[in-house]
Amino acid sequence: MPTFDLRPADYGKRAVAYIIDVLYVWVPATAGVIVAVVMVFPSQTRGIGVLLIVVSGGWFLLAGIWNDIVRQGTTGSTWGKERQSLALVDASTGETVGIGKALVRILAFWLFNTLTAGIFLIADLLMPAFSKRNQRIVDMLLNTLVVDTGPVSTTPDTFRVGSVSASSPISEFDDDPFS
């Protein structure tokens, strides 16, 4: 298994990687369904339209499973994370998480999202902006970390003005709640 440095990924790079991953799965499936719906109505192309709907649904499931579970579990990167030089690793060892933990990560995310009617989705995706290690809630629960695998930048970050010395209400989210 590959091992990576434990340098937490920037929230902006994580957001771009997530958008790329969503587009990678949804755009082909949605385009296929739209074309299929147009083809279902004329009787000459009805069979091809139904076949295209099945293929689009298959793409949606298989691309999602392959990208989020198999690929991320074995290499540490989804298609979007690879383009942003990011990887999902075990927070204590720096090794890739494996297919099992990647599956549990996705299932936990969707379970909590379903139980809270989408509120968890918003909180989970915004949490890296407020945590010290830029971790999502699911990452904190499973002790995983998305790290930056790209070269270390020598240019100063112009968006960070300085560190805040006073305690803030958000500081309670900075530490691992399970340690």
Structure, described:
A two-stranded antiparallel ribbon has the order 1-2. The protein is built from six helices and two strands; from the N terminus they run αααβαααβ. With 179 residues, the protein is mostly helical. The model has no long low-confidence stretch (mean pLDDT 87). Helix content is 54%, strand content 6%. The chain has one domain (11-148). The protein has helices at 11-40, 46-75, 79-83, 98-115, 119-126, 137-142; strands at 86-90, 144-148.
Keywords:
179 residues, mainly alpha, two-stranded antiparallel sheet, 6 helices, elongated
How is the topology of this model organized?
Layout: H1 11-40, H2 46-75, H3 79-83, E1 86-90, H4 98-115, H5 119-126, H6 137-142, E2 144-148
Antiparallel strand pairs: 1-2
- Reading the helices and strands in chain order gives HHHEHHHE
* Distance between the ends: 26 Å
Point out poorly predicted stretches: none
Shape: elongated
**Main sheet: strands, sense, barrel:** 2 strands, antiparallel
The chain-level mean pLDDT equals 87
Helix content: 40-55%
Number of strands: 2
